[in-house]
Amino acid sequence: GLPAHVTLYQYEVCPFCCKAKAALDFYGVPYTVVEVSPLTKRQLKWGPHRKVPVAVLDDGSVVADSSAIVSRLAAGARAEAGGKKGGWLKRASPSSTATTTTPDGGDTVVPPPVAEAAWRRWVDGRLVRVLTLNIYRTPGEAWQAFDYITEAGNFGGALETGAARVVGAGMMWAIAGRLASKYGIAEAPRDALASVGREWVGGALGGGARPFAGGVAGPDLADLSAFGVWRAVRGTDTFSAAMEGNPALAAWYGRMEGAVGPSARVEEAGAEAATAA
Question: Global pTM?
Answer without folding.
Answer: 0.84
